[in-house]
């Protein structure tokens, strides 16, 4: 199950608590978004747009988990242990020893930033889209930009 949770973090940039409370009904394929309604850090609802390459994945996941929580009860520790196991299996644990679930969120942020830039948005507007999807609001915050992108 932790593989699915890590996959969701990579494809949608959700926080651990948001993943743990993600219900199949929160995957809104008609709107093309994941509706974050529980577990957000600030208690605010948000919609995270599903990227085109990820639509098939979330369609299958919604069908497979119909009417259920997808990663019920998962913890940050269990996800980090899962990541460490995979890194060891791939012999990457020595080179990338500090990889955690938050590293996966950073990967999502940098890939999403690049996609927004390729769409023609400037750097500042691209970051505003990314930080909105990450749940950090839509006002440009330079300190977060430095953490996630620089």
From TrEMBL:
GO terms for molecular function: DNA binding. Keywords: DNA recombination. Residues 1-150 form the Tyr recombinase domain. One of its GO terms (biological process) is DNA integration. It comes from the Bacteria. InterPro entries: DNA_brk_join_enz (IPR011010), Integrase-like_cat_sf (IPR013762), Integrase_catalytic (IPR002104). Pfam families: Phage_integrase. This is Site-specific integrase. It comes from Candidatus Galacturonatibacter soehngenii.
């Amino acid at each position: 199950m932790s593989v699915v949770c890590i996959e969701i973090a990579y494809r949608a940039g959700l926080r651990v608590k948001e993943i743990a409370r993600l219900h199949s009904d929160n995957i809104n394929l008609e709107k093309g978004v994941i509706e974050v309604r529980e577990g957000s850090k600030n208690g605010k609802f948000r919609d995270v747009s599903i990227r085109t390459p990820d639509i098939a994945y979330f369609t299958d996941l919604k069908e497979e988990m119909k009417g259920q929580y997808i990663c019920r009860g998962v913890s940050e520790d269990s996800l980090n242990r899962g990541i460490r196991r995979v890194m060891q299996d791939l012999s990457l644990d020595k080179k990338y020893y500090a990889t955690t679930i938050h590293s996966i969120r950073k990967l999502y942020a940098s890939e999403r930033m690049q996609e927004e830039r390729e769409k023609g948005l400037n750097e500042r507007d691209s970051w505003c889209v990314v930080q909105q999807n990450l749940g950090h609001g839509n006002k440009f915050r330079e300190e977060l930009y430095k953490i996630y992108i620089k």
